[in-house]
């Protein structure tokens, strides 16, 4: 076995030999609760040994007790000492060291994900969704940065669950970074085994754009929420094709990383929203950012205020400082009409602090979680079941409730209310309430290929963003479909709506060819020197890229919703076509073993090489999802695939399903049954 000194000498990319001073914590910022720790003594020692792999031997004696203390008090070893002091933020690309534009661009993205204004728990490297991390610990962060500084345009950096495995020779048309997060072997692919793996420092929950380095602040989800609310209004409240939800009430919960978008989206859609949030600090952040307009801890005041704006038909968003279950109970007891209702607590991890049970304040929840996990779990289950019962009562009175992709219904089922499953037994046939993908996003957006295309102006110049907004708007024909009109209005008003938090970024739902055309236009603008380099990407909540039966693929009804072939193909296809960053994760926004999701990042440097990659990869990234939906007999996808085949005759080609008549299937089956 090599000695540690020889190991150190055999690496040129490694953590510095000086031990950094512990930078301490600014009490202003939120801290993650203690995570579940179920390790045996043997595994605890392993976790310690694992973390020390990054550290030169001379510091082991000092750091071993420090890391053990972190593990026992926080449930994880974060290596706080290695966090750089002060604020991290995504700066202009020119301020980063690197040998290729992609290496510098990735650093902008990583640091934006860790910005105090953006990250949910910046000290624990959690960007959003309660547990979604950029990487597992600060040693990895430092090492990834060192690798990105050295990365050339003929190498690929390989990152496994936050751990930078190394740089390997590839070529100019290869991805510069390939990363995976939380992937598990089938028989261990469950939250229990994964929780041990992450506590031992060998697996990371990347969620979607947290560990995929493409988070752009809550703006990323505002557009999707805006679309969902408009279309929910059209579907259930009789809102006209070209109308909005003015004069209508939307109620939900959560003003966190993603859920923080709800208040903003409801105002942009001209409606009135009341959003319950148990954590006052998150309300404060959203008020300061102008993402929610008013806040109160009185339910009476919240509903009176809402009524006032409903009557005036003016937009308004109100944060209720308290528990969503209290709010719903009040609405039921006082016979208050709620038209649109959802929930965005972090129900993909209800027992890890994602869901605050009724009867506990936010602080009490954190305390109980630390002291007595089993007791905490009991509170969560009781509260979730009550939450469900209240929703049932409201739905009986005409409320339209939709699950908003946070695994709420799954959590209620797991809490013991089996009646939330359609068959009352298991979740194989879905739930009694629709998910927003089943009713809205799936048929009205994903089946056409519309999804959350986004970009970051890496120069950090706001003028670049304004120019790209204008160029993207010019590429949309608002008269083609209602969806295009919504997207046109979105981008036209984007600047006015002050959506940027963190880097100069924009989200714009587009279909496959819309994304390609905008991407090519931006690359030309970079080439012509009109703007600096741009990072393109998307989140994983899209047509392609994500297999997630409780969310993105919940409208897949041919039985393939439990497979993950599409997500893996999307990832592999993007890598083969030369996207700058390709990512594949387990868990997405719904939890370990419940989704496989892939994302990408593409750096536009103005070159012809990039034009070629865009032409090959951008339509593929969305059309793989349309092709899969079409094969699952989603009607609008069949239309989209058929039009695509016509347009690309002699080039691309999608297999389209023949649809068997239901009566024929029934008749054949009944005849067969009679015979036996
Ligand atoms: N639909 C989508 O497109 C989409 C996208 C991303 C994430 N999500 C899912 O939405 C959920 C929320 O994501 P996030 O990033 O905002 O998470 P988050 O943890 O940052 O925010 C959730 C918020 O809910 C609050 N909360 C918890 N229990 C509550 C209760 N009982 N009453 C009132 N407030 C309560 C928390 O204090 C927190 O601020 C996650 O499950 C995530 O996976 C959905």
Q: Categorize the overall geometry.
A: globular
Total beta strand runs: 17
Number of helices: 22
Q: Residue-averaged pLDDT, rounded? A: 96
Bound molecules: nicotinamide-adenine-dinucleotide
Helix content: 40-55%
Oligomerization category of the chains in this entry: single chain
Describe this structure in words.
The protein has 676 residues and is of the alpha/beta class. The chain has helices at residues 4-9, 41-51, 60-74, 101-113, 138-150, 191-199, 219-236, 261-268, 280-289, 299-312, 324-333, 362-371, 373-396, 408-415, 436-444, 462-474, 482-492, 512-527, 565-576, 608-631, 635-647, 662-675, and strands at residues 126-128, 132-133, 155-160, 163-169, 177-181, 249-253, 272-277, 294-296, 316-321, 340-341, 400-401, 451-457, 505-510, 534-538, 546-547, 581-586, 596-604. Helices cover 42% and strands 12% of the residues. The strands form three sheets. Strands 3, 4, 5, 12, 13, 14, 15, 16 and 17 form a nine-stranded mixed beta sheet that branches. A six-stranded parallel beta sheet has the order 8-9-7-6-10-11, with helices on both faces. It has a two-stranded antiparallel ribbon with strand order 1-2. A hairpin with a 2-residue loop joins strand 3 and strand 4 (163-169). Helix 19 packs antiparallel against helix 20. Bound molecules: nicotinamide-adenine-dinucleotide (NAD). Nicotinamide-adenine-dinucleotide is lined by residues 120, 128-130, 221, 224, 253-259, 276-279, 282, 323-324, 344-348, 354-356, 404-406, 541, 589. Nicotinamide-adenine-dinucleotide binds next to helix 7 and strand 7.
């Amino acid at each position: 076995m090599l000695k540690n000194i020889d190991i150190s000498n055999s690496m040129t990319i490694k953590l510095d030999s000086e031990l950094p001073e512990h930078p301490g914590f600014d009490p202003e910022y939120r801290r993650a609760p203690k995570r579940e720790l179920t390790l045996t003594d043997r595994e605890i020692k392993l976790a310690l040994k694992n973390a020390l792999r990054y550290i030169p031997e001379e510091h082991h004696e000092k750091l071993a007790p420090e890391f053990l203390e972190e593990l026992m008090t926080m449930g994880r070893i974060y290596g706080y000492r290695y966090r750089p002091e002060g604020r991290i933020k995504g700066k202009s690309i020119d301020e980063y060291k690197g040998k290729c534009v992609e290496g510098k661009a990735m650093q902008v993205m990583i640091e934006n994900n860790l910005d105090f204004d953006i990250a949910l728990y910046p000290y624990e490297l959690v960007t959003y969704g309660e547990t979604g991390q950029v990487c597992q610990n600060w040693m990895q962060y430092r090492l990834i940065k060192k690798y990105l500084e050295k990365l050339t345009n003929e190498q690929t950096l390989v990152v496994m669950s936050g751990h930078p495995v190394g740089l390997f020779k590839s070529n100019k048309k290869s991805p510069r970074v390939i990363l995976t997060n939380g992937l598990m072997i089938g028989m261990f692919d469950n939250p229990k085994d994964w929780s041990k793996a992450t506590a031992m420092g060998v697996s990371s929950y990347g969620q979607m754009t947290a560990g995929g380095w493409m988070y752009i602040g809550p703006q990323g989800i505002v557009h999707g929420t805006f679309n969902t609310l408009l279309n929910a209004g059209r579907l259930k409240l009789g809102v006209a094709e070209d109308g909005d939800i003015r004069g209508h009430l939307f109620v939900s919960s959560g003003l966190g990383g993603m859920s923080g978008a709800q208040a903003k989206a409801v105002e942009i859609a001209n409606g009135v929203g009341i959003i319950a949030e148990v954590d006052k600090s998150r309300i404060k952040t959203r008020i300061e950012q102008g993402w929610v307009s008013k806040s109160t801890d009185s339910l009476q005041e919240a509903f009176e205020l809402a009524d006032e704006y409903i009557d005036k038909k003016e937009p308004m968003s109100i944060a209720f400082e308290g528990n969503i279950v209290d709010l719903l109970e009040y609405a039921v007891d006082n016979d208050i009409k709620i038209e649109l209702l959802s929930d965005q607590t972090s129900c993909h991890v209800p027992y890890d602090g994602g869901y605050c049970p009724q009867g506990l304040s936010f602080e009490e929840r954190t305390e109980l979680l630390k002291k007595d996990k089993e007791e905490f779990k009991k509170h969560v289950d009781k509260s979730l079941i009550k939450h469900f019962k209240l929703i049932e009562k409201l739905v009986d009175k005409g409320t339209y409730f939709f699950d908003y992709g946070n695994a709420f219904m799954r959590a209620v089922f797991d809490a013991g209310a089996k009646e939330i499953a359609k068959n009352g037994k298991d979740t194989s046939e879905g739930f009694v309430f629709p998910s927003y993908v089943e009713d809205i996003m799936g048929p009205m957006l994903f089946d056409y290929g519309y999804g959350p295309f986004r970009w970051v102006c890496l120069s950090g110049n706001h003028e670049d963003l304004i120019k790209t907004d204008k160029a993207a708007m010019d590429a949309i024909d608002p008269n083609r479909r209602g969806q295009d009109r919504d997207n046109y209005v979105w981008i036209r008003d984007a600047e006015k709506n002050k959506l940027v938090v963190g880097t100069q970024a924009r989200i714009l739902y587009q279909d496959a060819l819309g994304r390609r055309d905008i991407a090519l236009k931006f690359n030309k603008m970079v080439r012509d020197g009109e703007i600096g380099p741009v990072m393109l990407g998307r989140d994983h909540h899209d047509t392609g890229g994500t297999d997630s039966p409780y969310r993105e693929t919940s409208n897949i009804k041919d039985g393939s919703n439990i497979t993950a072939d599409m997500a893996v193909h999307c990832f592999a296809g993007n890598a083969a076509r030369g996207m700058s960053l390709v990512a594949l994760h387990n868990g997405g926004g719904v939890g370990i073993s419940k989704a496989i999701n892939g994302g990408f990042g593409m750096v536009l440097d103005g070159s012809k090489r990039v034009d070629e990659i865009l032409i090959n990869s951008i339509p593929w990234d969305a059309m793989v999802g349309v092709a899969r939906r079409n094969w699952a007999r989603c009607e609008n996808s069949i239309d989209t695939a058929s039009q695509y085949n016509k347009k690309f005759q002699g080039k691309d080609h999608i297999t389209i399903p023949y649809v068997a008549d239901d009566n024929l299937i029934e008749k054949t089956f009944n005849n067969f049954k009679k015979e036996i």
